[in-house]
Design goal:
4 strands, binds fe (ii) ion, 407 residues, globular, mainly alpha, 19 helices, two-stranded antiparallel ribbon
Length: 407
């Protein structure tokens, strides 16, 4: 019997020891012949290696077949994008290394000079406004809470509620029902037979997980019709989903009991930006153009032009909707988690956001890797040596769920 890294497994090999996920659920019993579907499920659940009958231990996880010039160019790209990050900081150093390889393997390397010269025309007559003042004067009306979110909150807040109650609420929205069933039937969960009822899905994956998925999906779907000239919503959703998954993976690694809230927080962390894009399309265009031309951070430009940044706007919306305090905490402080009342969960979303921006999975409009909050990083007590495993696990989960974004 030998341990083999999941990446090196070949269909047909015989499993020498049972494999279980983080929750103890049996993924494959000892003695089974491994199929490609099993390998995919192992990757999704972050199983780094399994014991296989009569195999030899695999070698280095990273192959050395990448073109050195491509790697060098990716590193140049990253140095430009990391201009607001301390590249000597150990966590950043590790993320940088992983992101360079990821960008090479996923065709995300830009040619020399491309990132430096993307000047955008700044529209004329763009006035500075004060978003929060406008909001107080009721010149801006924030979107209403989607009724399904409101009802889900009620159900979740009631300790007497059952899986059936949750399913009943979800079933009232046909589009949400279709999407949830698509998710639970995706390779992410890898259930052997098709699930065609929400109530069945709730019993299988749990009340809190369904609530989190339904909450995030319903909220983001309000914004799905924002014109492409303002923001590429597909790219925005990719950024949000990747941040959600990474937040959950980091939280699980830290044995947090709040993994589902962290998933939703990651999904909604840049939500405020969508409000800004809707209410102030010209100003948003100007803010984005300025951040490109001046090579400045988008959230700093937001503050300059609108008197507040997207994190404040996001909090305002969640507050109005009376969503759980932890979500507000994580969304409001995702760029400065050490100042949060609950600094650890906010730091998890912060780190996930930094990782996703480095990897270049989608974008919420920010071009640069946002700076690391060093105190928040210290609070997490994480070792950068686990990043490769955590990011690898999150990428496999993201790939299994990405198809839901096409709905
Ligand atoms: Fe942000
Ligand atoms: Fe973000």
């Amino acid at each position: 019997m030998q341990a083999v890294q999941t990446d090196k497994l070949k269909p047909g090999q015989i499993l020498a020891e049972e494999v279980r996920d983080v929750n103890g659920r049996l993924l494959l019993a000892k003695g089974n012949k491994i199929k490609s579907n099993h390998i995919r499920i192992f990757k999704i659940w972050g199983i780094a290696e399994v014991n296989v009958a009569g195999a030899r231990r695999g070698k280095d996880r990273f192959d050395s077949r990448l073109d050195p010039e491509l790697v060098e160019q990716a590193a140049e790209n990253m140095k430009f994008l990391c201009r607001y990050v301390d590249l000597e900081q150990p966590a950043v150093k590790e993320i940088f290394k992983i992101a360079v390889l990821f960008r090479c393997r996923h065709n995300l390397v830009e040619p020399e000079g491309y990132l430096h010269f993307q000047e955008r025309a700044i529209p004329e007559r763009v006035q500075k406004v004060n978003f929060l003042e406008e909001l107080n004067k009721k010149k801006i009306v924030l979107p209403e809470i989607p009724s399904v979110v409101f009802e889900l909150n009620e159900v979740i807040a009631n300790p007497m509620s059952s899986a059936e109650h949750i399913a009943e609420v979800v079933n009232r929205s046909p589009s949400l029902t279709a999407l949830l069933l698509k998710i639970v039937n995706s390779s992410f969960y890898g259930f052997p037979s098709k699930i065609d009822k929400v109530s069945h899905a709730v019993t299988l994956i749990g009340t809190r997980e369904i609530y989190g998925l339904a909450l995030g999906i319903s909220i983001l779907s309000i914004f799905k019709n924002i014109p492409k000239e303002i923001i590429d919503m597909y790219s925005f959703l990719k950024h949000s989903l990747a941040c959600a998954i990474l937040s959950r993976v980091i939280a699980a690694h830290l044995n947090s009991s709040q993994t589902e809230q962290l998933f939703v927080s990651g999904l909604l962390h840049d939500l405020g930006r969508l409000i800004l894009y809707i209410h102030f399309p010209n100003e948003s265009h100007n803010i984005i153009a300025r951040s490109i031309n001046e090579a400045s951070l988008l959230y700093k430009e937001e503050k300059d032009y609108l008197g507040c940044d997207h994190a404040q706007v996001g909090r305002q919306l969640l507050k109005q909707w009376k969503l759980p305090m932890l979500l507000e905490n994580n969304v409001f402080y995702h760029h400065k988690p050490s100042a949060a009342q609950q600094p650890i969960p906010a730091a998890i979303v912060h780190l996930a956001d930094l990782m996703v921006n480095s990897l270049g999975i989608g974008s919420s409009g920010e071009r640069f890797v946002p700076p690391l909050d060093h105190d928040a990083w210290e609070n997490l007590e994480l070792s950068p040596s686990c990043f490769e495993k955590l990011i690898g696990q999150a990428i496999h989960q993201f790939e299994a769920l990405e198809s839901i974004l096409n709905v």
